[in-house]
Amino acid sequence: MTEAVETDAGPARITWHRAKQPRLVLAVSHGAGGGIEARDLKALAAALPAHGVSVALVEQPWRVAGRKLAPAPKTLDTGWRGVWPALAAPGLPVISGGRSAGARVACRTASELGARAVLALSFPLHPPGRPEKSRADELLGAGVPTLVVQGGNDPFGRPHEFPEAPGGTYDLIEVPYGDHGFAVPKRAEISQERALELITDGVAQWAGSLG
């Protein structure tokens, strides 16, 4: 089911993949260079409803409008705030999630919006080749249980580059050989299908621990 939502940044769109007996909603948005057709978002939407998690794939207003470039972070946050009432409407706890730029939005707004937890897919810890431009403060400041899923070869931040999680601030799942889009090379020791299973199985287990 697709739902149009008006926000202060323009019309957004939610595509629902509902569980038969949901106990949580996982809301995930796309990155700055793509949409909800990303392989990890599609895999989660296909797998999580069987685990009692309804998945809401959120398209930010700039994507709905057909623009190719994402706006400033503040505008992304505005769009996310605008869709939140629709995400919370089923009356279930909502996991705030996203990939890349969407993960940053989820972290920045989680406490304010009352998210149950944050799912950060391919969190862009720093621009490629610029580790000194760290965005770790956004991740560490989410204020709710957080799961990072990161490709082993992600140029925006490899798993070993992430800071220690003080007080269990976040957990991290590594997808071996994965790039920023979780693509794995053909020569890798795991298949593309297995890489996606690591994501969906890991997120399902983590979501189950949230109650």
TrEMBL record:
Keywords attached to this entry: Hydrolase
Ranges for domain KANL3/Tex30 alpha/beta hydrolase-like: 25-207
Highest taxon in the source lineage: Bacteria
One GO molecular-function entry: hydrolase activity
Protein name: Hydrolase
Origin species: Streptomyces anthocyanicus
